[in-house]
Design a protein that fits this description.
The protein is mainly beta and 357 residues long. Helix content is 10%, strand content 26%. The chain contains four helices and 25 strands. The chain is globular.
């Protein structure tokens, strides 16, 4: 795996210190319920009222977990140190559409164009049930989740990632043994297409920004990239991994999730008290086959700092649990089979067909 594939606690320490100095709050508490029809998300083609969908029949933007997870306090335990606790979901691009079933459910064409990976059926009408009945571009057939991001263009030509892309699932809290699988139907948006360049750079999910060749930490696309066959435009961006245990979605598609925080007086990462449930941290590592003159490169959502992505969990429950337990809780650096080549004695979570044995 490439450099910096692990989640670095020091990054959260730096983020926390910067936030403390600047007075920035990065962890949001769950908001009070909004009236039906009140706008819940901004930053796509327009702010729109929450839409009625099969999973949100009253249209208030809240989808309760059934059952909710209660009685959890953030773990402050410190298990034996393991440098890695992750596995990969390798998923290829399946299609593009101007749809977003999280932000614009039931409204085809209402969004900017998105590049979809994972579930091949994802569109404006997708629900947990429809995704669970679909197929996938991921190596593991049990990963029926939908992953999508704004489409990247070079001029008017879409530039789509080629082959399976790396989507890491990591333990982002110090007590990696406390991480549990995503609840079925959980969905959220990572980042914001309306964020400023400074907000993008300071975002707790920011890893290395846009990079190509030896150019890193860019909030915008580099003006040029080495014009070589082995050079692509890359971005890495991490998602929040602490859940409130109450909602599968909220009106802003973010407030039910939070990033870990640093426990005062330590370097330990823990979930905040109002989002106590530790889930895997997703990290997108996307590679776009474009280089040379980058002056016409843009996202369907705008400039480089408008990058964001969406996740809609439809994993087969048993498959996801096997990978989480074996790789994250087990402290391994796994591939998409749940195999760590540096610890062959641990075996793999899935068989050669990426299915449960």
């Amino acid at each position: 795996m490439s450099r910096r594939s692990q989640f670095l606690p020091g990054a959260l320490v730096i983020s926390a210190l910067v936030s403390a100095v600047l007075g920035i709050t990065t962890v949001a508490a769950s908001p009070a319920p909004r009236a039906a029809g009140e706008a819940g998300h901004t930053g796509h083609t327009a702010a729109v009222p929450a839409a009625v969908s099969p999973e949100d029949p009253d249209g208030d933007g809240y989808i309760p977990a059934d059952p909710p997870v209660t009685g959890v306090t953030p773990s402050t335990q410190v298990p034996p140190h393991r440098y890695f606790h992750e596995f990969q979901a390798n998923c290829a691009v399946g299609h593009t559409k101007a749809d977003d079933p999280i932000v614009y459910p039931g409204r085809p064409g209402a969004s900017h164009d998105h590049t979809f990976m994972g579930n091949t059926t994802t569109d404006a009408h997708s629900t947990t049930a429809s995704l669970s009945a679909g197929t996938t571009t991921c190596k593991a057939p049990g990963d029926l989740s939908g992953y999508w991001m704004p489409t990247l263009y070079n001029g008017d030509r879409p530039v789509l990632p080629v082959g399976p892309q790396t989507i890491y699932y990591k333990a982002a809290v110090t007590d990696y043994t406390s991480v549990r699988p995503f609840p079925k139907g959980l969905r959220f948006v990572v980042g914001d297409p309306m964020q400023s360049a400074d907000a993008f750079r300071r975002h707790p999910g920011f890893v290395e920004g846009w990079e190509c060749g030896d150019s890193y930490f860019n909030t915008e696309f580099p003006a040029t990239c080495p014009n070589r066959a082995d050079v692509q435009l890359n971005i890495r961006f991490q998602a929040p991994s602490c859940w409130d245990g109450r909602y599968l979605d909220t009106p802003d598609h973010r407030s039910h999730m939070a990033y870990p925080v640093v426990k005062p007086g330590t370097n330990d990462n823990v979930c905040p008290a109002d989002h106590p449930v530790a889930l895997p941290m997703i990290e997108f590592k996307m590679a776009f086959p474009v280089n040379g003159d980058m002056s016409r490169v843009r996202l369907s959502s705008g400039t480089g700092h408008s990058f964001h992505y969406d996740f809609f969990n439809a994993w087969d429950d048993r498959t996801l649990k096997a990978l989480v337990d074996h790789c994250l809780v087990g402290g391994l650096q796994c591939d998409a089979r749940g195999y760590d080549q540096t610890h062959p004695e641990a075996g793999a979570a899935l068989n050669a067909d990426y299915r449960l044995p």
